[in-house]
Amino acid sequence: xxxxxxxxxxxxxxxxxxxxxxxxxxxxxxxxxxxxxxxxxxxxxxxxxxxxxxxxxxxxxxxxxxxxxxxxxxxxxxxxxxxxxxxxxxxxxxxxxxxxxxxxxxxxxxxxxxxxxxxxxxxxxxxxxxxxxxxxxxxxxxxxxxxxxxxxxxxxxxxxxxxxxxxxxxxxxxxxxxxxxxxxxxxxxxxxxxxxxxxxxxxxxxxxxxxxxxxxxxxxxxxxxxxxxxxxxxxxxxxxxxxxxxxxxxxxxxxxxxxxxxxxxxxxxxxxxxxxxxxxxxxxxxxxxxxxxxxxxxxxxxxxxxxxxxxxxxxxxxxxxxxxxxxxxxxxxxxxxxxxxxxxxxxxxxxxxxxxxxxxxxxxxxxxxxxxxxxxxxxxxxxxxxxxxxxxxxxxxxxxxxxxxxxxxxxxxxxxxxxxxxxxxxxxxxxxxxxxxxxxxx
Length: 442
Description:
Layout: E1 4-6, E2 10-13, E3 17-19, E4 24-26, E5 30-34, E6 37-39, E7 43-48, E8 56-60, E9 63-65, E10 68-74, E11 78-81, E12 85-87, E13 98-104, E14 108-111, E15 115-116, E16 122-125, E17 129-132, E18 136-139, E19 148-151, E20 154-157, E21 161-167, E22 170-175, E23 178-182, E24 186-191, E25 194-199, E26 207-211, E27 215-218, E28 223-227, E29 231-235, E30 239-242, E31 247-252, E32 259-262, E33 266-269, E34 274-279, E35 283-286, E36 290-293, E37 298-303, E38 307-310, E39 314-315, E40 318-321, E41 325-327, E42 330-332, E43 336-337, E44 352-360, E45 366-374, H1 412-426
Parallel strand pairs: 1-4, 2-5, 3-6, 4-7, 5-8, 6-9, 7-10, 8-11, 9-12, 10-13, 11-14, 12-15, 13-16, 14-17, 15-18, 16-19, 17-20, 18-21, 19-22, 20-23, 21-24, 22-25, 23-26, 24-27, 25-28, 26-29, 27-30, 28-31, 29-32, 30-33, 31-34, 32-35, 33-36, 34-37, 35-38, 36-39, 37-40, 38-45
Antiparallel strand pairs: 40-43, 41-42, 44-45
């Protein structure tokens, strides 16, 4: 069956809809399709707009397109799909792309299956809601693309989210009064990306992201988690990021609260890597370790009244950096502390406290105090190595020459002198001159 347009009423279709452009266009009413929606060219699989609160589309099957949009909904629409959203484009270029779900104005989308596409997976705005029960696999994000974006809306994914071939993008965004919930792992492969970015849009309102699994990021100059004013991110698992210039967590609160909580560990690997970076009233809490490795790697960096709490250890070449600052007229770039440079007392019992107070300059003029609290110490000392080969050692020494005057067992002085001579010969200590008395006649 070819594409259809509905202006109201109730329609049920028990067949695949195969169209060169659009599948279903709904201006009102209720439509049920028992079958797949397949497009031969770029278009929209399900398009609902100028709809009223009673508009509803149910697809019991898959939506397969070579490019365009799988589901587009404006204006209080409801769309239910039991199958998957698939991108069938085979050309390897940026023009074969598909946005899986684009929804605005209090619309609701429920997908029982998974999303496999090339381009943006979910765009949800203006008090809309998207619920995906499966996984999301997408690739080829460029410039202003994003894998998932919620602004003033709610997005929930029961499975994992995998984004590959990304560059210069925010892969998962929550902005404004929004929430993104992902119950599986988040994996991002690309360069110059923020895997997760949460921030307010205009008016103060919390933008949250909650990840029940792990966050894994691979590539160069990426940040795994980035929060700005009124952004709040929670990760139940671990955060792992690998590549040049990797940054595990970056919190920049500026004019509002911003925080990140990772219940697992944060590991950043690569030259110039930073485990935790908090700037201007940023707050980060890590339930495990913070590990940074590579040339110039930093475990924790805090600046301008930021706070970091670590429930286990910091393991890094540079333990803590407080950035560039001036203390009592002395300029440091950067000012750092090692594991043993903790304060004499701590505001948090059972934690080592590392703090510094200073005055900011220029744009950040004012009085600041930064704090880092660490539950367990990781003090490493240089490994001296095996050292030079000592060789075979002195050996057993020369074999003692039998002494023809060896005394009998009754001559104690003679026996003592003979034993000492033998012992020192074995130890290579040289000759021993011992005065011996003439043995008594038996």
